[in-house]
Design a protein that fits this description.
Helix content: 55-70%
CATH architecture of one domain: 3-Layer(aba) Sandwich
CATH class of one domain: Alpha Beta
Strand order of the largest sheet: 2-1-3-4-5
CATH topology of one domain: Rossmann fold
Order of helices and strands: EHEHEHEEHHHH
Number of helices: 7
Largest sheet: 5 strands, parallel
Distance between the termini: 114 Å
Radius of gyration: 41 Å
Shape: elongated
Strand content: 5-15%
Number of strands: 5
Length: 263
């Protein structure tokens, strides 16, 4: 499974190189790729577009120096469009999630912490399984992670120590408060709209139910009864002459037959 590693700047490039080697060691089915892997003589834009299209997962390597770099923002946007199942995350080398602004803040982030990195490799392993690649059993994956984690940890700490950041990415408090206020207002508007739509739907359902009950009652009142409580008159018996006898004639005939029987 191809994994696209996005980077911008020297520290980010070194981070992506360390991640590329480490990922292939932990999960052999992974095929990490980053832009320096483009062969000499190939058209850069075509090769990059092809790699983006083939990638099933994207990792954006962020640090204090490249949060606002145009290239990292471009590749992040391209990854979000090309990889449809939201398999894109940011890797935070020496920053926290509070230091990131949208659109980079819209992706799930992975911190330079052992357990967070464990979650990342489990997610990658699941993606391999979905892509019908050779995924590892969980116990095997955890064993592989424990074996190779110290190597990545050492490599990334070396990058942090040897190449200090050029700038401080910490955001102004007022800027962060304005962003939080905007998010809260947006959530409030969505909640109000949801309540409004729910009230409309409830009113419509009540109106439909009332209409159906009214129509049903009207139909019951309009239809003739299926039966009544009056006893049906017994059908008259046919007379010998082909006509019908009255009740009196039937009684006389019964009485005559009875007398003949007694005689």
């Amino acid at each position: 499974m191809q994994v696209f590693l996005s980077w911008s700047g020297d520290r980010s490039r070194r981070t992506a190189e360390a991640m590329s080697l480490w990922l292939k060691q932990v999960i052999q089915a992974l095929d990490p790729w980053m832009s320096p892997d483009i062969e000499k003589g190939k058209r850069w834009s075509i090769e990059l577009a092809g790699r983006l299209e083939k990638a099933s997962f994207g990792i954006i390597c962020l640090d204090k120096d490249n949060l606002n770099e145009k290239w990292i923002l471009f590749e992040a946007g391209a990854l979000s469009k090309m990889i449809t199942e939201s398999n894109v995350c940011t890797f935070l080398l020496d920053i926290g999630s509070e230091d990131i602004e949208s659109p980079l803040a819209d992706f799930q982030n992975t911190k330079f912490e052992k357990e967070d990195m464990r979650k990342l490799v489990h997610t990658l392993n699941s993606a391999c399984s979905k892509a019908n690649d050779r995924s590892l059993e969980e116990k095997v994956l955890d064993c592989s992670f424990e074996t190779y984690w110290p190597r990545l940890e050492e490599a990334l700490k070396k990058i942090i120590d040897e190449a200090p950041p050029k700038s401080d990415p910490r955001r102004d408090q007022r800027e962060m408060l304005v962003e939080i206020l905007g998010i809260v207002r947006s959530i409030n508007r969505e909640m109000q709209m949801t309540d409004f739509v729910s009230s409309l739907v409830s009113a419509k359902l009540r109106a439909e139910l009332k209409n159906k009950l009214t129509l049903g009652l009207a139909k019951i009142l309009a239809d003739p009864p299926l039966y009544d409580n009056k006893e049906e008159e017994p059908s008259p018996s046919p007379s010998p002459s082909g006509g019908f006898l009255s009740r009196r004639e039937e009684a006389d005939m019964i009485e005559e037959i009875s007398k003949k029987g007694n005689g």
